[in-house]
Structure to design on (275 residues):
């Protein structure tokens, strides 16, 4: 795809401190305000950005505030993409060690935690990972006007 | 931007209400757990209503806290309801299947009235 067809909407970096995911989601929400996403899509994207940023802070950069989480928001034809980069090892979005199962969690067979990657996958249309040396990037893609891949009735 | 978690516990006819406010994330762990214990201590309520009207943000850690409260309530044979969820968080409750175990209601007053009526 030609670079001329990609429009950067925002780029910023945040110290890896717990709670900074709130800043990331607010900045991304502001950046995509004119991108044609529905209010529901913006809300889902905000949740995915928050969770991916939390992962980058906690697991990628191991809560080291001297390491930055870098976020770029851009538009491609028919898509809004948010890339979130850290300096950690690859943590696969697609190969969750244990898929959260609420029945098992309520029975004590799974920990109550473990919803982050699950939420990311369900909130956007596509999730991709790229690893380049010590730089690990998660790309979240949303297609304006397209219904969610996992509608509310999904189980 | 970040808002501190807070919770008010109120006894109603037929149950108790935990009115949650602010950010429901990992920082809410102790506060939510203590509020639940305080709410059920003494009067053994059959229903626990979690009200999210004043909640600004729920993340995966907050979902885990809600799962913990739900597990405890179920072990104690208490019914759990939720009110005041935005459409977005209602969707998350459905995707995670929390809504299979927590009755989702509209606003706080309607939920309180329903609990009271079912107790009569």
């Amino acid at each position: 795809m030609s670079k001329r067809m990609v429009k950067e909407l925002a780029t910023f970096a945040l110290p890896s401190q717990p709670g900074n995911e709130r800043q990331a989601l607010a900045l991304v929400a502001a950046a995509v305000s004119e991108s044609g996403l529905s209010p529901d899509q913006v809300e889902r994207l905000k949740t995915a950005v928050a969770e991916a940023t939390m992962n980058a802070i906690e697991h990628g950069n191991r809560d080291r505030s001297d390491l930055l989480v870098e976020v770029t928001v851009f538009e491609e034809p028919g898509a809004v993409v948010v890339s979130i980069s850290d300096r950690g090892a690859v943590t696969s979005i697609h190969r969750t060690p244990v898929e959260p199962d609420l029945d098992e969690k309520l029975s004590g067979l799974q920990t109550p935690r473990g919803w982050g990657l699950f939420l990311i996958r369900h909130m956007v249309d596509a999730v991709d990972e790229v690893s380049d040396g010590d730089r690990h990037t998660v790309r979240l893609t949303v297609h304006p006007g397209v219904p969610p891949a996992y509608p509310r009735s999904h189980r | 931007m970040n808002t501190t978690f807070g919770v008010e516990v109120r006894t109603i006819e037929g149950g108790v209400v935990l009115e949650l406010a602010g950010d429901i994330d990992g920082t809410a762990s102790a506060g939510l757990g203590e509020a639940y214990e305080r709410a059920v201590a003494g009067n053994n309520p059959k229903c626990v209503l979690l009200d999210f009207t004043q909640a600004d943000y729920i993340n995966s850690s907050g979902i885990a806290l809600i799962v913990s409260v739900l597990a405890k309530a179920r072990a104690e044979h208490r019914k759990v309801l939720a009110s005041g969820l935005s459409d977005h968080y209602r969707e998350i409750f459905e995707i995670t299947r929390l809504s299979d175990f927590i009755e989702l209601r509209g606003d706080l007053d309607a939920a309180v009235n329903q609990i009271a009526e079912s107790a009569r």
The longest helix of chain A spans residues 39-60. Residues 9 and 31 of chain A are 6 Å apart (CA to CA). Chain A has a mean pLDDT of 90. Chain A has one domain: 3-142.
